[in-house]
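pls ignore typos typing on phone
flavin-adenine dinucleotide + seq
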Amino acid sequence: MIAGFVDNLASKYGRAYIRDLVASGATFPTDMWKEVADAGYLGMAIPEEFGGTAMSYDDVRVFFTEMGRKGLITLHFVSYFMDCLLVAAGSEEIRQKYLPGMAAGEYWSFAITEPGAGTNSFKIKTSAVREGDNYRINGQKVYITGFAESEHLVLVTKTDVNGAGPRKDAFSLFIIDRNAPGVTCTPMNVGTHSPEAQYIVFFEDVIVPAANRIGAEGAGLGILFDALNLERIIIAASALGLGEHVFEKGVAYAKERTVFNGPIGGHQAVQHLLARAFVKLNLANLANREAAVAFDRGDDARTVGMYANMAKLACTEAAFEAGDAAFQVHGGAGITDEYDVAAILPMIRTLRVAPINNEMTLNYIGEKCLGLPKSY
Ligand SMILES: Cc1cc2nc3c(=O)[nH]c(=O)nc-3n(C[C@H](O)[C@H](O)[C@H](O)COP(=O)(O)OP(=O)(O)OC[C@H]3O[C@@H](n4cnc5c(N)ncnc54)[C@H](O)[C@@H]3O)c2cc1C
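k done
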């Protein structure tokens, strides 16, 4: 059913739609997004009582994989994991107020990364200081996908600004209105070849009601780390789908392109390149399915984390290898607009470093799954 929906979507909003948006400088796939929302696919992780369609997380994984297979993924879709965050940790008031809008297609952005912190989230400086029923927020975030296009932002802040308690309890999450006084942004020059933009976002004495805090004060990182496992699964699915999208072009080209005797796919060097990439894509997809199923089964966070980190690593690496193979097989044609191979590769490559780099997935597996000493 999901594949059928995405198939129909792709016949209307195919790669030509995405490429036209990129060429025109558009920063949001507005029409396609609306169609996805209207069909209920932006509310898959939201319970029906809040307007969602309450499907399994494995269904979410399938949706992302299929969107990737058609070359339709933009990083805006990663906002999905914020639905899960609000469902899991939002107060009843927050859930009632915001989840129906999200299910109906309201786009939210997410901000944790700071110039001076990067991968090391514990070093973030954006502060939220309690003042009566409100918090006063000051700081700066970078690489925030779609901030200017979003209605709301989930912001990661430091509430224990003096470091009085344990550092794991120093951070809190807030919902920020895109147009709140004191919030400004400037676009970055990021070339993902996708109709999206990343922004530097500034917070200057932004006043936020305490009711906008997600979870208890100081509980932010714990809430986030569980939700980030779900983000890893959709990133893995997106990368895998995009890898399959270009890979299929490589196989088709290898069957038709003849320069010596017979099609180039008849030469072992080309055939083995593709066969190996095919095996890795399929193994990675199985790993990601296991991660989503582990979450649906209610496995503990440690088990879901193990599978989600393995899947993120496996899918992004398999997609990169498959994309590189497809480019190789195309020869010079790989870089032409006509074959639309090269334009997919920057996104696949980016997904190895963002939203979490693969080295951190290895650090997680080394430490949490193998019991080795923390290495960073
Ligand atoms: C297109 C795009 C969209 C993004 N969207 C968002 C967004 O919407 N919201 C948001 O908050 N952030 C976003 N980001 C930021 C992204 O999450 C960060 O780029 C990422 O977390 C890495 O941080 P960094 O770039 O500062 O790299 P750094 O932390 O400087 O790391 C650089 C490299 O060093 C290596 N490295 C670092 N630490 C370790 C370690 N402990 N062990 C081994 N190797 C290590 C890794 O190879 C890593 O790639 C986006 C980034 C991009 C490129």
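The CA atoms of residues 253 and 331 lie 10 Å apart. The pocket of flavin-adenine dinucleotide is lined by residues 75, 109-113, 118-119, 143-145, 190, 192, 198, 350, 353-357, 359, 363, 376 (CB under 6 Å). more later
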